[in-house]
Write a structure and sequence with these properties.
With 142 residues, this protein is mainly α. The chain has one domain. It has three helices and no strands. The protein has helices at residues 2-40, 49-91, 98-141. Helix 1 (2-40) crosses helix 3. The chain starts with a helix and ends with a helix.
Length: 142
């Protein structure tokens, strides 16, 4: 019974992890598109150095979040590929799977590290953009 619960929750975790990675990647790409369209707008002109600095910093960090999302997605695919290879070797009773286990363990840990970097870069980017938009549009807000 406990193994069934573990497998069920492990499946739920894997599905939610994948969904969250994809959601953040989608949000990052959409934000990048929005920011690039703002730059093409002739009415949008960050005038002060701080406005430009925060806007540019935000854009760079959102782009980094896109890169992190792509890296974690590709790493997850690689992780799944080596997990299948490990299972296949176990089914065929091949004992030389230590290297494959090491790759699977590293890939799993690396996915979580890159995921946290994806979240962190997106948060830093959004904070910087919020400050930038406040500085740019504060006259309209007051």
């Amino acid at each position: 019974m406990n193994i069934e619960r573990f497998v069920r929750w492990q499946t739920i975790l894997r599905e939610h992890f994948t969904f969250t990675i994809n959601l953040l990647l989608t949000v990052s790409i959409a934000t990048t598109g929005f920011l690039l369209s703002l730059l093409n707008n002739t009415n949008f002109i960050p005038s002060g150095n701080s406005q430009k600095l925060f806007f540019t910093t935000g854009l760079i960090f959102v782009l980094l979040s896109v890169v992190m999302g792509l890296v974690v997605s590709l790493n997850r695919l690689n992780d799944f590929r080596f997990t299948l290879k490990k299972i296949n070797h176990q089914l065929k009773d091949i004992n030389d799977i230590a290297e494959i286990k090491d790759i699977v363990d590293f890939s799993g840990k690396f996915s979580w590290i890159i995921f946290y970097l994806q979240v962190g870069t997106l948060c830093i980017g959004y904070i910087s953009l919020i400050i930038s938009f406040y500085l740019i549009f504060r006259i309209k807000l007051i």
